[in-house]
Design a protein that fits this description.
The chain has 215 residues and is of the alpha/beta class. It is built from six helices and nine strands, in the order E-H-E-H-E-H-E-H-E-H-E-E-H-E-E. Strand 1, helix 1 and strand 2 form a beta-alpha-beta unit. Helix 1 packs parallel to helix 6 and helix 5 crosses helix 6.
Length: 215
């Protein structure tokens, strides 16, 4: 099977980007991150990509005349780098519908809760963990899903639960959930690169080895 080309979209530190890159470097993922795109000029992920000799681009709607030119520029870059899959890694801007439609079931996102709970517009970063603590639920977790035209809505590929402790703060919970994000996301990227995930409607099926499932 040919190696996949991945584009990473990131708005912040890029810790999930680095988690995936580490597994690529270790030979555990059949693919390569060939470019990184950020909507924020000061995103640390841009510098981290550059340090790894990965082409990195700042693309903000304010740089373009209109939404169409902004979207077309993304598609042109993705075509230039022959992208097979897009990996959202803390990307805080909605993906243009035309990009989603150009890459059906080929855009992955990781969310720091068990979707469909605590997802949707406005639920990102520490806001998710604030809401989890405020609501008093006993379990939260990590969800990896395909992206569609609606925030945090696409077919779910993988979930892993994380217990909410009585003494948790949003910060302590975020730190613990992030540990599982760094395990779950590279795992799912590996599955995708191996062709072990199929999707039909809102359901996905994993066809890889059973021992690969747990983290």
């Amino acid at each position: 099977m040919a190696r996949s080309n991945f584009a990473v979209f990131a708005s912040g530190r890029g810790s999930n980007f680095l988690a995936v890159q580490e597994q690529i470097a270790a030979g555990n993922i059949s693919g390569d991150i060939v470019c990184l795109i950020s909507n924020k000029r000061t995103a640390p992920a841009l510098e981290k990509a550059q340090n790894l000799d990965i082409p990195a681009f700042h693309k903000s709607p304010r740089q373009f005349e209109n939404e169409k030119s902004y979207t077309n520029d993304h598609i042109d870059t993705l075509k230039e780098y022959e992208i097979d899959y897009i990996l959202l890694a803390g990307y805080m801007k909605k993906i243009p519908d035309a990009v989603v439609q150009a890459y059906p079931h080929r855009i992955l996102n990781i969310h720091p809760a068990l979707l469909p709970s605590f997802g949707g517009k406005g639920y990102y970063g520490m806001r998710v963990h604030d809401a989890v603590i405020e609501r008093g639920v006993k379990w939260t977790g990590v969800t990896v899903h395909f992206v569609d035209e609606v925030y945090d809505h696409g077919p779910i590929i993988y979930q892993w639960p994380v217990r909410v402790r009585d003494d948790d703060t949003p910060e302590s919970l975020a730190e613990r959930v992030l540990e599982y994000e760094h395990k779950a996301y590279p795992k799912v990227v590996r599955w995708v690169s191996e062709g072990w995930i199929t999707a039909e409607g809102m359901r996905t099926q994993y066809t890889g080895p059973s021992e690969e499932w747990d983290i």
